[in-house]
């Protein structure tokens, strides 16, 4: 902040190179007091120059004050200086203060004068060496452009926000570290934290088409089945996805117990963990298998006691009711916390109580919310067809195969051959009902 006591004197007829004798602005005529002040100031400065004991302030004055000349500037500069003197030219303001024509903060003005002097020197250097400055700037810019190829932008939230060596970092890397130091001969499976994922991206046939349809989901089921059944041979052994995928850990079973004989079967029953839309439907059980299905003979005598198992030679997750099996085992052998843990996990009936993508699928379980009991309605439908006088198309090859099976098993004559191959008699409707009823039972 600068306070002008009186307006500076007008321009006088003095040599332009005499900086100490020049007035600052040409706003008014010079007075005798101004001449006396300037003469005293000049004498004082010359006497100070001859002295060997100049103070620190005087040295600063010699370096920062008296370097600015108002005659070298335009009328616009003079107008701005009259409005904002300390901001426009700190050197000129200090000259006003030293002549007693103004009051202000000398320390702030010295700082501004130093900054203005440095910037003025820098600008003068750039003006004198314009081509050199342009070349240096272009060289530096080229160097920065070359370094852009080595820039890597980190987008992993864990690496950006989780401190290294902290508790959260230790917890995230715990499972990976344990697996690395494990001496178990079992194949290391991916842990889902630091391991990689195998991703299957199913896109529609045409751009913009909705893939979450019945046909699209059934096609995805077929693709996942092919992936699950795919085999490769390494070192004389066949490997499938079930051998390397991430699975929940097997239950701890004592080697001396009878259940230890069924550990291979239990390992096969435990499915791989994968995230897919078809896992929300019953058809998802077709993909997880196991492949091949578990043979009932592999259970030995246990199959005679487990009435909850499907009445088939082979079974898989598509017809397996885990809740019924666990409840039955708990009645025979007290499972304790295992049964409680099973119910808390809400595994329930597995896939048997999930919606079917295709409700008309003959294998769609009865517990499915959208199960269509077409097997119960077939006899009524065929009776209606007989009364209405229209025929229902039947696969003749299927009937021929079924008749051949009955003939070979019972060593009886074939009704189908007896009535002339593909020609059905009037009672063919009852035979169709009988055949379809057997299909529904299976």
Automatic annotation (TrEMBL):
- Where in the cell is the protein located? Membrane
Cleaved signal peptide residues: none
**Molecular function via GO:** hedgehog family protein binding; hedgehog receptor activity; smoothened binding
What cellular component GO annotations does this protein have? plasma membrane
List UniProt keywords, sorted A-Z.
Glycoprotein, Membrane, Transmembrane, Transmembrane helix
- Which coarse location class describes where this protein primarily resides? membrane
Q: Any keyword Transmembrane? A: yes
- Topological category with respect to the lipid bilayer: Multi-pass membrane protein
Q: Does the keyword Transcription regulation apply?
A: no
Segments crossing the lipid bilayer? 131-151
A single Gene Ontology biological process assigned to it is: negative regulation of smoothened signaling pathway
**Family, per entry:** Belongs to the patched family.
Report the protein name in the record.
SSD domain-containing protein
């Amino acid at each position: 902040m600068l306070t002008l006591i009186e307006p500076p004197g007008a321009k006088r007829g003095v040599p332009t190179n005499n900086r100490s004798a020049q007035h600052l602005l040409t706003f008014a005529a010079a007075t005798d007091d101004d001449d006396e002040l300037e003469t005293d100031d000049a004498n004082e400065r010359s006497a100070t120059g001859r002295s060997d004991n100049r103070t620190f302030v005087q040295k600063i004055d010699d370096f920062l004050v008296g370097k600015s000349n108002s005659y070298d500037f335009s009328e616009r500069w003079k107008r701005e200086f009259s409005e904002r003197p300390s901001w426009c030219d700190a050197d000129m303001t200090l000259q006003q203060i030293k002549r007693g024509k103004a009051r202000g903060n000398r320390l702030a003005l010295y700082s501004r004068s130093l900054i203005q002097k440095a910037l003025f020197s820098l600008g003068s250097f750039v003006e004198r060496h314009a081509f050199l400055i342009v070349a240096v700037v272009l060289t530096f810019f080229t160097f920065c452009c070359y370094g852009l190829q080595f820039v890597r932008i980190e987008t992993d939230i864990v690496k950006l926000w989780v401190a290294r060596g902290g508790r959260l970092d230790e917890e995230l890397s715990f499972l990976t570290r344990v697996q690395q130091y494990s001496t178990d001969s079992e194949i290391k499976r991916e842990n889902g934290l630091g391991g990689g994922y195998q991703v299957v991206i199913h896109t529609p046939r045409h751009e913009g088409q909705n893939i979450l349809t019945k046909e699209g989901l059934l096609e995805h089921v077929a693709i996942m089945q092919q992936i699950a059944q795919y085999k490769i041979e390494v070192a004389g052994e066949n490997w499938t996805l079930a051998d390397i995928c991430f699975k929940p850990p097997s239950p701890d079973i004592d080697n001396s117990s009878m259940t230890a004989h069924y550990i291979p079967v239990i390992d096969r029953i435990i499915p791989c963990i994968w995230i897919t839309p078809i896992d929300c439907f019953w058809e998802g059980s077709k993909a997880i298998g196991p492949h091949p299905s578990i043979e009932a003979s592999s259970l030995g005598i246990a199959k005679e006691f487990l009435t909850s198992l499907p009445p088939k030679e082979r079974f898989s997750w598509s017809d397996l009711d885990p809740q019924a099996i666990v409840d039955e085992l708990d009645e025979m052998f007290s499972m304790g916390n295992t049964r409680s843990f099973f119910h808390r996990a809400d595994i329930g009936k597995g896939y048997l109580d999930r919606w079917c993508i295709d409700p008309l699928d003959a294998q769609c379980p009865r517990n499915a919310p959208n199960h269509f009991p077409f097997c119960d309605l077939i006899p009524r439908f065929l009776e209606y067809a007989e009364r209405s006088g229209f025929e229902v198309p039947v696969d003749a090859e299927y009937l021929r195969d079924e008749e051949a099976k009955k003939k070979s098993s019972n060593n009886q004559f074939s009704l189908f051959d007896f009535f002339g191959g593909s020609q059905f008699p009037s009672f063919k409707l009852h035979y169709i009902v009988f055949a379809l009823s057997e299909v529904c039972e299976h």
